[in-house]
Amino acid sequence: MDCKNSPVSFQQTKGWQKLTDYLDGKKKPDCTRAQKIFDNLLEAIKNAEYLSQVTDALLRRPPVTIPAYAYADETIAAPKCKVPSTDFRVSSSARLVFADGHNGCVDWCRYGGEEQPQRETLHLHLKAGDMVTYRIGRLSSAFLKVSLKAYGSGLMTVQQQQPTEAFNWHLFMKGETELQLACTYGEIWVEELYLQCEGNSHE
């Protein structure tokens, strides 16, 4: 509703804030008022807008930014510490940490599709021997540029290839639907991946 991070969006209806306030523990609206709010909601849905860029992001069709924590599989050389720093993906062997170093629960409550506050930013902490895999959508070109927003003095490969420049790779990816990131030396903290097709499109 009235956001940019959903495949379909529509105008926020009058009084909707009263319902979200109730969900957050505030005063409950009376039945008549609530019914009117939902009637207005149905009218707003009739004029919904389709946001194709969101669908492309969900299907991971470049150009797309993928949060580092959204990996599909992991191979971790050493087990993570017994007490995780976040409550997110606790069954995974990979190490997820808050960028600012605090511990606790991730706050995902963004009713309007707002950006996550910097305090909620997660990093994927990789050490030498660690590898994670990301699934990607069909590419419009066999040539893919991969850029990482990452920190640390370690070394990384993507698809077992060395970077062409710091945290950037130019890859030939014809028919491939997975990306493998591996830390080969030291430690790296990865925040996100940006994928962009280059060169000629598939025929």
Explained architecture:
By secondary structure, the protein is α+β, with helices and mostly antiparallel strands. It has three helices and twelve strands; from the N terminus they run E-H-H-E-H-E-E-E-E-E-E-E-E-E-E. The protein has helices at residues 16-23, 31-45, 52-58; strands spanning 8-9, 49-50, 64-67, 73-75, 95-98, 122-127, 131-135, 141-151, 155-158, 168-172, 178-185, 187-201. 16% of the residues are buried.
Question: What are the key terms here?
Answer:
Jelly Rolls, flat, 203 residues, four-stranded antiparallel β-sheet, alpha+beta
Major β-sheet profile: 6 strands, antiparallel
Q: Care to count the β-strands? A: 12
The domain tally reads 2
The coarse overall form would be flat
Give the SSE string.
Answer: EHHEHEEEEEEEEEE
**Assembly annotation:** single chain
Radius of gyration: 21 Å
Q: Return residue spans where pLDDT drops below 50 for at least 5 consecutive residues.
A: none
Count of DSSP H/I helices? 3
- CATH architecture classification name of the largest domain: Sandwich
CATH topological fold name of the largest domain:
Jelly Rolls
Termini separation (Å)?
A: 38 Å
CATH class term of the largest domain: Mainly Beta
Q: What fraction, in percent, of the residue positions are helical?
A: 10-25%
Q: Could you tell me the mean pLDDT?
A: 90
> Which structural category fits the helices and strands?
alpha+beta
Strand content: 25-35%
